[in-house]
Amino acid sequence: MLEKGIEVASLLDSNVFSFTFDYDDWPGSHTDQDTYLRGYNHSIFQLRYHYKTIFSDLPAMEDNNDADPMQIDSTKIYKITYSINVLPQIGEYVVEKLHHGKIEKNFINSEHNLMGLINETEELDIFATKSIQ
Known about the structure:
With 133 residues, this protein is α+β, with helices and mostly antiparallel strands. Helix content is 14%, strand content 20%.
């Protein structure tokens, strides 16, 4: 579409490629207000079961508060918002697999350089969309 000159800013700003989600099994609040970005290379349909693999390095809120629950400052508990951006899977990306003790890199969609096409476009509104930011 970009090569044909079709404007795609409204599509990239929609919930087609980037959306928020909420699973009951995932924590909904935490005392840490930082933003974390993580890669996820498995099926989006299995995402619900991968919290511990995606955020394995983050301590759970209950681990940080072994003391009396009454000592938790309720003004410092923040809602967690989870979102995923599937746009990078459309262009070229790398899948790493362990093969005979060595990591093999396979380039998927190598003929489609989405970010290169976006870089060459004159449609500047694309750069303000939630899928690209």
